[in-house]
Amino acid sequence: MAYNDDSEPLPTALKVLIAGGFGVGKTTFVGSVSEIEPLSTEEILTTASAATDSLAGVESKSTTTVAMDFGRITIDDQLILYMFGTPGQDRFWFMWDELSDGALGAVVLADTRRLQDCFAAVDFFESRGINFLVAVNDFDGAFHYEPDEVRAALDLKPHIPVVLCDARQPHSATSTLISLIQHLLSATTSLST
Amino acid sequence: MGMAGPRDERWLDADAGRLVRPYTVSNGRTRPTTKLDLVSMVMSTGRVHQARLEPDHAQTLGLCAGPTTVAEVAAHLKLPVVVTKVLLSDLIDWGAVTTTSPGPVAGPSDRIVLEAVLNGLQRRL
C-alpha cells in the first residue's frame, strides 16, 4: 500500500450514475454533458456472487462482462465529476456494487413509451438508499405523459423530482444534472433539520 | 495492447474466449494489492521510467502522466477494470504511481462539495 502522501493533493473524482432501460438515451446523455468523447470500459462480474475486485473464477463460465460508457466534467482543479452510464442490456450491473458504491446520486432516464424499462433502476436506487431523480427523455418532442402521470406510474415518493429533458441537448442534459445536485442538497438539508 | 495476433489465437478456444488475455496480463493474480475503485485518482510519481517496465505496465504508466482515474486508464487500455487495477497496484507497489486512499472523500451529504459541483455545472449553461 502506498497512498498519496505528496504535498500536492490529487483532485477528487465524484460520480453520478445515468441509469434507465436499454436504448433510453444514457450514452447520448453522457455524451451531451461530457467534456470528452465518452469512454467505454468493461468489467468482469461473476454471476455466482456479487464479489468484485477479483478475477477468481474467470476460467469458469459463471462470469459475465458488462460494458459501460462514461464521461467527465472538470468542476475545478480539485473536483472532477464523472457520469457513468449503467449497462443497459442486462441487469447484471446490479451486482456491480462498485459502480454504485459512493455515487453522489443518479439520474434515471425514462422513455414514456416504455416506462416499465426504468422500474428496475428505480427499485435498485431506492433499495440502496441512493438519491435519484427521474428525467423523462423527450425523444420526439411530444411528451405523452405529464410528469405527475410519470410519478404516479412509477409510484415515486413525493420528494423525488421528475424533470423533462432532451438528452441530445447539452443545455438540457446539464440542467438535469443541476436538478439532481439541487435535489441532493435539499436531501442533506432535510437530514440535518 | 489489444493486439491479439495469430500467435495468440491458438491459445483461444470457445470456453476461454476473451478471458484468456486479461488473465494473462494479470499474471494469474486475482486481486490488486492496493484497494482501488473506479474513480480512484492515480498519477505517475516520475520515479520509475516506462522503458524499464514490461509493455503492459509501461503503457499503464504512460496513461498516468497527469492525474486520472482507474476508469479512464481501463478505457484506454481496453482491459477490464479488475485487470487494470492489478496493473496499477503493481505500479503503486513499485513507487511508480501514487493514488489517493479510497473511501468516501466526498459523500452525497457533503454540502460544500455539492455546492461546488452545482456552481461548476451552472457555469456550463
TrEMBL record, chain A:
GO molecular function, one term: ATP binding
Pfam families xref list: ATP_bind_1
Gene3D superfamilies recorded: P-loop containing nucleotide triphosphate hydrolases (3.40.50.300)
Keyword hit for GTP-binding: yes
CDD domains referenced in this protein's UniProt entry, alphabetically: Ras_like_GTPase (cd00882)
InterPro entries: Gliding_Motility_GTPase, Gpn, P-loop_NTPase
Alphabetized UniProt keyword annotations: ATP-binding, GTP-binding, Hydrolase, Nucleotide-binding
Protein family per UniProt: Belongs to the GPN-loop GTPase family.
PANTHER family: ATP/GTP-BINDING PROTEIN-RELATED, GLIDING MOTILITY PROTEIN MGLA
Name recorded for this polypeptide: ATP-binding protein
Lineage: Bacteria, Bacillati, Actinomycetota, Actinomycetes, Micromonosporales
TrEMBL record, chain B:
UniProt cross-references to Pfam families, sorted A to Z: DUF742 (PF05331)
Protein name: DUF742 domain-containing protein
PANTHER family xref list: DUF742 DOMAIN-CONTAINING PROTEIN
InterPro entries: DUF742
Source organism superkingdom: Bacteria
